[in-house]
Amino acid sequence: MRIAVCVKQIPKEHERIVFDPESLRVRRDGKLIMDDSDAYGVELALRLVGEAGEGEVIVVSMAPHDEETGLRHALAMGAARAVLVSDDALGGSDALRTATVLAAVVARIKPDIVIAGTESTDGYTGTMPIQLSELLGWPSLAFSSSLDLVAGELRARREADDGVFELSCPLPAIATVTSGSVEPRYPSLRGIMEARRKPIETLRLSDLALNAAEFEADGASEEVRSIVPAQQRAAGEVIVDDGTAEVRVLSLLSEWKAI
Amino acid sequence: MTALPKYGCFRCFPNGRRSEMNMGSIWVVAEQHRGQPLPIAFELLGAARDLTDNVRAITFGQGATAAAKLLGEHGARSIVELGDLAPGLPAPRVAAALAEMVAEERPEAVFFGTTFDGREIAARLSARLRRPLLANVIGLELTVDGPVAHHGLNGGEELATTRFINARPGIYLLRPKCFAPRDRESPSTATVAHREPPEAGATDAVRVVAHQEVVQHGPTLDAAEIVVTGGRGFGSVEKFAQVEQLAELLKGATGATRAAVDAGWAPYSAQVGQTGKIVKPNVYIACGVSGATQHLVGMKDSSHIIAINKDPEAAIFSVSDLGIVADVNALLPRLIRALEARR
Ligand SMILES: Cc1cc2nc3c(=O)[nH]c(=O)nc-3n(C[C@H](O)[C@H](O)[C@H](O)COP(=O)(O)OP(=O)(O)OC[C@H]3O[C@@H](n4cnc5c(N)ncnc54)[C@H](O)[C@@H]3O)c2cc1C
Ligand SMILES: Nc1ncnc2c1ncn2[C@@H]1O[C@H](COP(=O)(O)O)[C@@H](O)[C@H]1O
Predict the structure, then answer these.
(1) Which of B141, B306, B328, B339 to mutate against chain A (most A CBs within 10 Å)?
(2) Is residue A256 a part of any domain in this protein?
(3) Would you call B212 and A252 a contact, using CB atoms and an 8 Å cutoff?
(4) B146 phi, psi to nearest 5 deg
(5) Which among A43, A118, A125 is the top mutation candidate for probing chain B, defined by the most B β-carbons within 10 Å of its own β-carbon?
(6) What are the chain A neighbours of B8 within 8 Å (beta carbons)?
(7) Residues 197-236 (A) with a CB less than 8 A from some CB of B
(8) Cβ–Cβ < 8 Å for B170, B110
(9) What residues make up the domain containing A12?
(10) How many angstroms separate the CA atoms of B52 and A7, rounded?
(11) Nearest CA to ligand 1 atom 11
(12) H helical segments located in chain A
């Protein structure tokens, strides 16, 4: 059982994403860390391999200037090795381009399962893993809150609006996992020590026989034209409950014709 | 003509300027459930009809024929219905059908709603056509350079404007509740055609092993006039039950933050925010919710907001009409009693 987990490395101050005023791209020149959204995938992959009793978890990432902090974190959690694609030509890549690059990585390492987050904290398109599955020609189990192997197939639980689904598909397959499905483990001290010696293979586009100029059909791309502050909703009054705040709430509700 | 929605979302060119532009056709992937188009389907039709009259709806699933008629009455000039697509999940085959149709007819744009299926079909189409997509679109505008899209960033604090270059068709994923739905205008002269989607190979190998329907009590989150949302502040599933009790008394719907969903206090279908639902009720009551940007994007366009949090610095207060610094476990019981006393 070989499982590849997509790990996005994002700016540390991810609560607030900062844009470069010139290029209008997300600034990634500072320190990058593993996106929390991907800790669930790493955890589920480690459990699946643990239950299978054999195999390895490989973390894969595309990130600028050979960034590997986030990968080391996943290695410290217990992943066996990492593959990183880093190339100046990939600056400002969108989800499709990322999927194209990661598809080449997947073709190279040949996992049985690829796990990714449902959506990243900084980009949140939520489309990269599905584009990856279509490029590979694999089935995908999106929005999974649990993953199991049953009779050689991958089983996922999906909580949707119209109920809870249990889905199944043959391997190889891609799954995206939601947060909260499991509690991701914290790296132990020993894990952190061991992670330092685990291998990270760093690839350039040429190693993957990819040429950035040919990624999208007809040179299709998107352009950010402007980023401006949005009109904000004004804050109202803040009161401290003196034991009668419910009266105030009721009077507002009736003023707003809600009761 | 529709009024300009309050914040973050706006429609542009509602007064006929579009006729000066040479806008090609727009396709709308209109999801439906048992013959009834989802609200987002009408919103997509609204967004498309603001840009052109040349709108086609593509629908699928059990009940697609009944839905097709309604889509025609709500602004689609033609409808293509792809059949019920059982027993697999629809996305791989719908994307395959769209890719074929795009190759034949080259529309200007294809619009999807940000839903389970919408997101998956859009992503698959993008990969098949090797063309990028624009996600999280909250507004659209026709300029001399063609359509441009607006996106909220950092929880809506900033607004980005993007456009495609050489990307016909542009693939757009629109957020729910950001575009005014197209009103009904019968009788419709729309044409309806059935098209059999091609096989989608291994990508279509997912099967449903079990399905447990959730019974809906009261109004749905999208439709409710009042939403009461609980966050991590409650501390336990037993205390979280007060949120449901309050929602029920107000004939509203229960919402939850991701932290509350992750804790198992509420189902994912109750999650409000970036990964959950976008709601715009008359009144939104946030209890024990900090107001993370990913939560704010899902609720701050509500008409009125009340927040209860014990932390006077809580970010949720910055979007609230009334903020109450209080312990939810002290205030909610009193509020519930006061409401019960009114009945
Ligand atoms: C990619 C991504 C997508 C996300 N999508 C969503 C989404 O769709 N929806 C969503 O909600 N979140 C989402 N999040 C998570 C979000 O960032 C926050 O973590 C989450 O909203 C916090 O939930 P909370 O407010 O319940 O918990 P907390 O942030 O822990 O806040 C709890 C609040 O309760 C208050 N409190 C504690 N005890 C009491 C008490 N007794 N009485 C009154 N107040 C009390 C505290 O002061 C605090 O403000 C997403 C995150 C990421 C990275
Ligand atoms: N550059 C990247 N490297 C590795 N994984 C990625 C990258 N970008 C996105 N992903 C994966 O795809 C998921 C969805 O990302 P997004 O499409 O940005 O919302 C993330 O949670 C990651 O698992």
Answers:
(1) B306
(2) no
(3) no
(4) 95, -170
(5) A125
(6) 230-231
(7) 215-233, 235-236
(8) yes
(9) 2-218
(10) 41
(11) B257
(12) 39-52, 69-77, 95-109, 128-136, 189-197, 245-255
In a domain, A251, yes or no: no
Q: Which domains are seen in chain B, by residue range?
A: 2-204 (3.40.50.620), 226-342 (3.40.50.1220)
Contacts of B99 in chain A (CB under 8 A): none
User: Which atom of ligand 1 is closest in space to residue A124's alpha carbon?
Assistant: 1
Return per-residue pLDDT of chain B as tens, 343 residues: 233 333 333 333 333 344 444 578 999 999 999 999 999 999 999 999 999 999 999 999 999 999 999 999 999 999 999 999 988 899 999 999 999 999 999 999 999 999 999 999 999 999 999 999 999 999 999 988 889 999 988 777 889 999 999 889 999 999 999 999 988 987 888 999 999 999 999 999 999 999 998 777 889 998 899 999 999 999 999 999 999 999 999 999 999 999 999 999 999 889 999 889 999 999 999 999 999 999 999 999 999 999 999 999 999 999 999 999 999 999 999 999 999 998 7
All residues of chain A having their beta carbon less than 8 Å from the beta carbon of residue B226 are 258
CB hemisphere CA count around A52 (13 angstroms):
23
Is B21 in contact with B199 (CB distance < 8 Å)? Answer: no
Does any domain span residue A249?
A: no
Residue A246 lies in a domain: no
Q: Does A163 touch chain B (CB under 8 A)?
A: yes
**A213: CB partners within 8 A, 6+ apart:** none
CATH of the domain at A26: 3.40.50.620
Tokens of B114: 């940000």
Domain count, chain A: 1
A126 in contact with B, Cβ within 8 Å: yes
